[in-house]
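Write out a sequence, fold above all:
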Amino acid sequence: NRHKKNIVLYMVAACRAVAINDLLDRASERSDILHSLSTTLSHDLDSQFPPIGRVIMPRPSMCHTASLQTPIDKYQALQVSESDLLSLARSLLQAWEDPLAVLSTSANTLPHPAQSSISNKIQELQEHSKNLGDGLDILSGKMGPAAQTIASLPYRGGNDIGEDRISKLINFNFLLSCFRRDSHKIDSFLKILRCRAAKMQPEMC
């Protein structure tokens, strides 16, 4: 009986590990798409970005998620626990629910030749973001209370990105640059989590 119990416990542990690895694989793939899409969008916008925009666009420290303390490089990220890394990724992702809706609405009237394409890509961002969020919610349930902690990072930028052409382009570009920055962090954190789950050496992560 004791031997059978040990086998059952081992099988449960193995299934749990496989489930987490599988979820991390899928989450990592989605976060990669999210970051790639935001990078493509940034390149699309650059083609019509006014030179003055680069001078007066707000700094990254003005992003609404800038107050969240995150690792500044991979070395620091490798020192953070799995639960805390997942908590950071979920906090960043959830903080973009409202701003992505603002980008989506604003894209409909964006003064840009590729407006239609940009609008479609923003909708894709919203869909991938929601799907990734759902997956991370399931994952957090398997990784304990610390992973389920989410920092509050309210967006207070409002729904209006500006009246004139230059203001609209600058504010849209700024908001997207903040998302691109955060999507890179989310992608990095999830790749490190996947790497750890696969028990790779730190230098291979």
Observations:
- Residues 2-46 form the longest helix (45 residues).
